[in-house]
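Hey team,

Filing this mostly as a record. A colleague (T.K.) asked me to run one chain through the structure pipeline before their review meeting, and I want the input and output archived in the tracker in case anyone asks later how it was produced. No errors, nothing strange. Just documentation.

Input sequence:
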Amino acid sequence: MRVFQTVVWLGMMLCGIMATSEVAAQRVDLSGRVVDEQSSPIAYATVVLLDEGSQVTGGSTDEGGKFSLSAPTGNYTLHVSFVGYKNLNRKVELTTTTDLGNIALEADSEKMEEVVVTANLIRREADRFVVDVANSPVSIGKDGEELLKTAPGVWIQDDKISINGSSGSKIYLNDREVKLDDAQLMAYLRSLRANDIQRIEVIPQSGADYDASSSGGIIKITTKRNLDSGLMGSASLVANGTKGAYNIMPSVSLNYNSGKVNAYGRLWAGTNGNDYTTEEHTDYTSNTVIDAETEMDERSTWAGGNLGVVYDITNRHSVGAELQYNYWGSNGDTETWTERSLNGITSRSDGIYDDKGRNHMLTATLNYIYKLDDKGSTLKFIGDYTNNLSQSSNNYFDTNCDDLSAPLITRDSTYRQASRGNYQLGTATVALEKVLSPKVTLKAGLKYTYNGNDNNALYEYQKDGTWLTNDLRSYDIGYNENIGAAYVIATARLGRVSLVGGLRGEYTAFRSADKLVKQNYFDLFPNANVSYAITKDGAYSLIAQYSRTISRPSFWALSPNETKISEYMIQRGNPNLKPSYNNSVSVTAVLKYKYTISVGMQIMQNAIQQTTLVDSENPELLILQTINYPTLNNFYATVSLPFQFTKWWSANFNITAMYMGQRIYPDEPVRRNFMGVANAQMSFTLPKNFFIELDGMYIHGAQAGNTRIADFGNLNAALKKRMLDNKLTLSLGVQNIVPMKQRITIKEPTFERVMIANQPWMKPAVKFSISYNFNSGKQFRARSVESGSAEDRGRLGGGGGGE
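Output structure:
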């Protein structure tokens, strides 16, 4: 495997270097600054370069009104537009690097009905897809989760996010990871509003400046920057519900800027409820048949906030500090019955379970940033500390009847469990970025990470009215992990060819508290990106990528904690999990600047996957556990097709096809299956700032290990209205117009289990949202404190969030 990754990496870099010999069609840079009639910068104005009416390249201005585009030499039309201003068109001749200086837009007091030229909603850059959310009618009234579903290659299922089928994708908001477990992460993303978001970047294969554990890729969300001096903020409320489920999420954010000080804060909260039933039928080769039904009532609440300050000591030196807290609480009640039939005798078990969980996460961040020059070179020092405390308790009461023909003969059992986990994370980072020229950049950095983990659980059962300890299941464990890393990255743009090459080295030392487990290992993680413009104008291009990453098991998965799901199924942690390694290769073709086709493969070693296993002592008991797969290989193709049919009708289609081969046990043949995912969005712009939106998705062949989910999809519709100079947005919609049930099949040589889940989120539901943006003062850049522990906190499995 080491030989494979080295050959691929060196081969891609060699091909890129050889391709640089063709420099006949040199690309040059065009820059400028968009301002109003008072010379104040206009942030997020649309800037498009046209060649005989066709878009060559485009983008938007930054918070200071600046833009920078790259195109082949030639004659073009520069189009600049922004809401509330008259469109500007200017002839531009590009022969060398050109700075247009200030470009003033004239205020437009009337609402114009003409066609507005916008940058493409989705564009492909060297190592990522970029979704330009700002000023796009497709994004109006959406939340963060809905926006992610429009991004190429992104798939969200059961609160899990993956890119091109690779799980464990990390979410960053303004360069900070949103550090939550699956359910909490989705709740937080739903609290984000589209009118606060500037763009979304999907990075399928992360570079050397990210931790090697970013095996599932990176999704970066950048929010808009608003005022230059004063106060700005937003408030929103989202509510949706159907029979058996509800969800309410308020949030508010504030940003204040005065001179050298920028302060920001955000508060978010939410509550939801979910009642659902699951039916199970299991056939065993031993002729045993088990039928079961479970009714669950779950309630969750969450709240959090962050407060940060950035102080500019001088125009080159700044310091920042941030404090962040998150709370998550859940309560669940379960009633279940199970009947087991064999040789004409049927036994029955009835159970009543309740569970409670609480999670508290506190994070502190401090950084110092030194701007080395005016080219964009920086030196950063970042320190982080996170403390995460989780507590849970479960109570169980079972009634068992060995033969229903004699129902008066029953046995009762009562038992309980209480667990506590405390996780500590500390990081120290030094990062250097040196811009040598407009075409060449070097990056280098060092990082130290400490992870500490203490877990204990007490299992008790009741006998003759007395609680007794179950010593076989109770535990008190802990471990610490130290990781040292160094990386270097070089970026070069040479004519039609762009090159990015990086190498990261990580040394890991792992120790258990009882000193019985010791692991020391060093790994290298290379990555490379080569892009080539096929045509002179860059409308058609090819991009090749390679990366090697590591995926370390979450602290939650390593805990041996055990939770009863039903009489014949439990969920159990696995302290013996090993890290997995992923080698990824992909090639992307960009057509007419905006249509993309990607093909790639992912070769994984010791892949970490959740799987249903047969208990070694009781073959009728199934264990839901995370294990290492000996083999997991994915081959995929993704197509992204954005369309603007008319000035009032836009659409976006994403299709992903995947062929997977996986081996759960070392001595079995490879299990192969095909999976397809398709989603589409359409937006219709109506008069008086009304909008209609339709979106839908369909999934075929979803499978993980021995578990397969039957095909399913959904269809949603919404009516949206903007008011008060676009500061107020109202949305009313219907989700899951076509009701469905979820069918899950688990199949092994000794059994086949079919589960039918009647989930409220697959029924028609009404969703209402309202959001309001306000500001007072001139335009300024809302800043946030950069964190260095972003990738690591995702392993905590709960806690913080924020911007």
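Quick notes for T.K.: The chain has two domains: 29-118, 121-796. The longest strand covers residues 410-437.
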